[in-house]
Structure formats: structure tokens, C-alpha cells
Write a structure and sequence with these properties.
The protein has 318 residues and is an all-alpha fold. The protein contains 16 helices and 2 strands.
């Protein structure tokens, strides 16, 4: 399945001119990645019928849009690297990242328009609603940077919009193009949305408590940049006045050595039982995903590949 996606992407044809517009798009797509979203589209589609041209266009439309967001996110965050290579704004410049990113957004719509199926309009509306939601999630995330009173509910809504609904969109698109029953399309959407939430909260957990060799990056990055995560938000809510003051002081301290900052913040998390609270929330979301999965009106055997894929996403160990 992954090979089919890579082949389809490799066969996309972009003009040579104007110079500087399309090269960054090819560069971004060639960085690879896990292609989680397009794989999810094809998996959902194959629950009902074999994948054809319409399904491939839908799958790659989601991947094109996802990469569009990465170009803009890297620019907004000032990130210099992406998947081990220079980010587009670093390799070229900020204006290039904006314009090439915008072109990728338009290309995503072109791919959706190529989905010739009975429910094409429904697929197009889902993509539009998802794109708006992702922008809303990004704005919430930006707003949270200057707030120390973000609630768990606000945080979960932010990651639902910024991350989870694109996974949900990818899965539901596959089902829509396959002309699956509406009830199944909705159950698949809700299932994938829960998996996305659980994945992001787990990502927050592993950034502090994961094994770098398994997690794939250094531990404590969120602490060093003062990112509002599930762990930090819950710690600030549960801390007494003294602990809260110390936590905020550490997070905002740009002088303290990175190793010491990570160690001291982690100690506060441990004192407040944040690891157990986080794991409990992940388990709750996972249970919700299982309920939505059960609502898909296929045999357990027929829909098992979708569950297996979800388990690979959540199978990273600390």
C-alpha cells in the first residue's frame, strides 16, 4: 500500500517554471515520512472495495494538504529541520515557503476534484471543513503560548482540531469514495479522531518519559521550549502555589542548563502523579476509539486491518 502511494506521488507532474515555485513542493514530498494519512484513507476504502484511481487521488490529496501545513508550520515555528533535512523556509526563504505551501493547498483541491465518485461533493465538503478546523486548531495553539490557565478540555479541543481531525478526514474520505454507508463513515471518522487524540497525548508523554532510541528524538524538547502539553497543563492545574511558582519559573528560565530544567520539571510531574494521570487519559480515549470501531457494520475479521493500523500508531513504548 505504501509503495502505491509513493509511486502515485512520484508520478505527479509539476511544471519547471516559474523557477522556485514547484521545486520546493517536490523537495517536500520527497522527504517521505510515514504517510500515515494516505495509508489510512486506503485502508478505510479497502474495507468496502478495492482501491482505484479515485481512492488514490483522495489519499494523496490529504498527504498534499498535510505537507502544505508543514511548510507553513515550520516557518511559523522557526523550525530549521524537517525529517532530517532543511525546512523549506531555511533552504529557500520565507516567501518561498508561503507561496509553495499555498500552491500545495491548491494542488490538494485539484486532487480532490479528480475523485470521480458518486459522493464527490461530500468528499470536497469534508476536506474544506477539515482545513478550516486545522487553522482554528493552529490559532488556539498560538493563543495558548501566552496563557498559563489553559484547561485540559481546551487543550484536547486544540489537538483535536490541529491534529486529530485530519486523521479522521483521511479515514472518512476513503469510506466516502468507496460509497460506504453513512453510519459507517461517521463511525470511522470518530474512531480515527480518537486515535489521533490518543496519539498526540501519548506523544506528549513520550517526550518526557520515552526512550529516545524508540521515540526517535531527544527527550524533554517540549519542556525546553515551554510548550503547553497535556502534562504541563495538568501539572499547573494540580500544583500547589509553591509548586506552580517553581514550575512556571523553570519553564520561563532561559539561563538554566537544559538537562537541569528537564530533570527538575520531570520531578514535579512525578510528585503530582502526572505520568499516571496521562496514561489514564490515553486509556480512556483508546476505549472511546474501541466503541466507535465496534459501531462499524462489518465483521470483526473484515475491519481488523483498520484496528491493526491504529495499534501500530499507538504501539510506541516508553
Amino acid at each position: 500500500m505504501l509503495n502505491k502511494i509513493e509511486t502515485f506521488i512520484d508520478n505527479l507532474s509539476f511544471p519547471v517554471n516559474p523557477v522556485g515555485l514547484y521545486e520546493p513542493i517536490t523537495y517536500s514530498l520527497e522527504m517521505g515520512g510515514k504517510r500515515i494519512r494516505p495509508v489510512l484513507t486506503l485502508l478505510a476504502h479497502e474495507l468496502y472495495k478495492p482501491c482505484g484511481e479515485a481512492a488514490m487521488n483522495a489519499a494523496v490529496a490529504v498527504e498534499m494538504y498535510h505537507n502544505h501545513t508543514l511548510l507553513h508550520d515550520d516557518l511559523m515555528d522557526g523550525a530549521e529541520m524537517r525529517r532530517g533535512k532543511q525546512s523549506v523556509h531555511k533552504k529557500w526563504n520565507a516567501n518561498t515557503a508561503i507561496l509553495s505551501g499555498d500552491t500545495m493547498l491548491i494542488e490538494a483541491f485539484r486532487l480532490i476534484d479528480n475523485c470521480k465518485c458518486q459522493r464527490a461533493e461530500e468528499a470536497r465538503k469534508l476536506m474544506i471543513d477539515t482545513m478550516i478546523g486545522v487553522c482554528e486548531g493552529q490559532q488556539y495553539d498560538m493563543n495558548f503560548e501566552t496563557r498559563n490557565d489553559v484547561s485540559e478540555a481546551e487543550y484536547l479541543e486544540m489537538i483535536r482540531l490541529k491534529t486529530s481531525i485530519l486523521l479522521a478526514c483521511a479515514a472518512k474520505l476513503g469510506a466516502i469514495v468507496a460509497e460506504a454507508p453513512e453510519s459507517d463513515c461517521n463511525a470511522i471518522y470518530n474512531f480515527a479522531e480518537c486515535i489521533g487524540l490518543a496519539f498526540q497525548v501519548q506523544d506528549d508523554y513520550l517526550d518526557v518519559y520515552g526512550d529516545p532510541a524508540v521515540f526517535g528524538k531527544k527527550i524533554g524538547g517540549d519542556i525546553l521550549c515551554g510548550k503547553k502539553t497535556f502534562l504541563l497543563i495538568n501539572a499547573l492545574q494540580r500544583a500547589n502555589a509553591e509548586q506552580r511558582e517553581e514550575l512556571l519559573s523553570l519553564i520561563n528560565n532561559a539561563v538554566i542548563l537544559p538537562e537541569e530544567k528537564i530533570e527538575r520539571v520531570t520531578q514535579i510531574y512525578n510528585t503530582l502523579d502526572i505520568p499516571a494521570i496521562t496514561q489514564q487519559r490515553i486509556a480512556q480515549i483508546y476505549d472511546e476509539a474501541r466503541q466507535h470501531f465496534a459501531a462499524i457494520s462489518l465483521t470483526a475479521e473484515a475491519k481488523q486491518p483498520l484496528w491493526n493500523f491504529a495499534e501500530t500508531l499507538l504501539g510506541r513504548k516508553s
